[in-house]
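Can you give me the bound-state structure? Components:
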Amino acid sequence: MNDAQPQPGSRLPAFINVRALERRWRRLSVTDLVVWGIGVVLLLFVFWRIVLTFGQGAYTLESFIKNVIFGLAQGSIYALIALGYTLVYGILFMINFAHGEVFMSGTYIGFFVIAAMEESGFLAEQTLLALLIVFAVGMLSSMAVAVTLERIAYRPLRKAPRLVPLITAIGASIFLQQAFRGLFGSSTKVYPHVHLYALPQLFPQLEDGKGMDLISGKYDVQFALLGNDVNLVVQPFIFVIFIVALLMMAGLYWYVQRTKAGKAMRAVAEDKDTAALMGINVDRVIVNTFAVGAALAGAAGVLFALYTYQVTHTMGFIPGLKAFTAAVLGGIGNIPGAMFGGFALGFTESVAPGLLSIPHQLKDVVAFSMLVLILIFRPTGIFGEVLSEKKA
Amino acid sequence: MRKALHLLILAAMCLMLVGTAAAQEEEDWGTVTVAAGDPVRIGFAAALSGAGVDVLGIDELRGAELAVADLNAEDGILGFTVELVPEDSMCSADGGATVANKFVSDESLVAIVGHMCSSACNAAKDIYAPAGYTMVSPSCTAVALTDPNAPSPVFNRTAWNDRVQAPAAAEFLYSVLGITSVATIHDGSPYGEGLVKAMEDAFFALGGDVIVDPETGEGWAINVGDTDMRATLQAIADAGPPGAIYFGGFPAEGAFLAQQRADAGMAEVVFMGADGINATAYVDAAGEAGCGSYASAANPASVEGGGYEAFVERYVEEYGEEPTAPFHAHAYDALMLIAAAVEEVGEVDADGNLTVDRLALRDAIRATEDFEGLTGALTCDEYGDCGSGADITVVEMMCPEDGEPGFEIVWPEATEGE
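Here's the bound-state model for the whole set.
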């Protein structure tokens, strides 16, 4: 019964390990001090800029809310791509730099399907079905590319030193980009503007009674919050992206934690040789991992293209780099970490420049500074665990 | 005593200056010799790949190719056939430098038509200068390239200077549309940055209000390759909102801005770009959101007696499509300008070999007066500006109910050149 009422202050949160902190304190070196010093200076700078921004009074609650919403869409996309990096790293400890191109291939091939369906009028008639087909095609194409890549470029090098597959991945990335350029040309392809109407009962006033346009619609929303009038232009699709992303992540988490295939995946991540001794087909598990990561990237690509419309052979590069950053930020190899890192990066890019009164052109600088800041205090990323010698 | 020493040093420096000036007069850029029977080789550099910019570059290449075909159909240059050596210099500084280094290692090249983007021109001109290769760019319009304070010995252009283009845009927005406040965005390229600065100055001079970022005191900027500009647009909406947004950059980013401005509550704000977004890539990518946006354009058709219509007919016949971007005629003129200069300074010796003095070639190009080109009468100045600017028009992206959207000229009064 005594357990039920702990003395206040007697228990620290579980994540603060007092003994580890003590050990660290005793081993403190000059380098540590310098690094922490830089971190503290950066934090003070951030604090100072925020105070300054609010001091000027130009920054409104409205801008903040808008930027948070913009960051939501971008963050969801980053998070979905980051999962692919993290899954492959968790198992093979290799960074699949071609993952951005896997994302691009699904989007690109999805484009041909959606363009054909628009041409035939099918897209306008059976919008939901057509979209599901595009998603399926995008995910399957990405999977096909990733699995082929694994078979041709990575599997023969599995026993090679770690730098070799890394260089191969960069080569594969350039190969895929140039292959798509050669096949389909370098001009920008444009996704059609899709209108998907829903819930006419709930929103009879929108779109002549057809309901809310979930994809291309943009609606004025006004409300009062904390004594401020807030006028927003809201695109429901941003929330659709967010919800779809959350659902897919939940599905992935369930797959890894609750299914037999997921269990095999975790076993291989723990120790490939022992897993093989337990009768697990390691090659198949690795192919599975690539396929799952690629499917998420393909879905992210179609969402991205429906949101920004433009598809080019280079479209995967920057999002791929950002998603890799997100995966590192969250702790590479860790699934919730990748999701968290993706959202954190999306929000920072969108919200931080305005909040810190820094030109928006420098949003990448802000985002990567955040990465440095977090890695200073948590070198393994936010959710990262310290890898054992064998893994690292 | 010390004063005397200073005077002495001063005198010595003066002498050295005179010395260098004298040395400059005897400057020698070397010569290029074309053996009898060989072609006169002219380099061509533009972005032939890369999303959104290749349409501009391929269009320029076609203009240059037609010029070569015209020359070869009529006895070439001094009886020598002309050969075009195209290279892809992309739309970047490193692309420009790579191609320039490749070209200067090829001593048989007489001159260069190119590059296409101001960033590439800027990098390339400093590589051509020590080698003495004269370049004539059909589309590098950045103000800084012919800055009298930092002149380049080799850079010339048949495109206009943005000092001419930007005021035309300002004039159009202020006087024709009656817009009194404008916010600018550039894409970080020398072209975009120079353009918006010139535009801000011109708009301010007309009496308009230029809205700036309260933090930096300047206009806004994005990066090439960005896809989400909503936060930047939101910052503009917070500071303004302006009557118009003026963008210095290229189709991909321009289309994102045109689309996303609605998300920041600025759907009604006029969006205007320059020649950089005047391409089919912009029209396709911007879609509905681009309807009613403006760009500046070269319209050689407005130049009387230029023979432009006949040129376009040949273009369509040869390549099976209408010109995709505005600078094909400038590329044609650039090549013709070089050909005329080679014709003037080239010397054919007894063995039938052609020798061209590189410095004389540059001088001949810069001495050009009233050269009848497709884009108007070209007169070059001492800094390399040959473009008349007589052909600048403003175009609007029209979206007819039934039919393909596209740019149409809405402001036909040509502005006078510098």
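A couple of observations. Residues 61-92 of chain A form the longest helix (32 residues). Residues 1-10, 387-392 of chain A have pLDDT under 50 and may be disordered.
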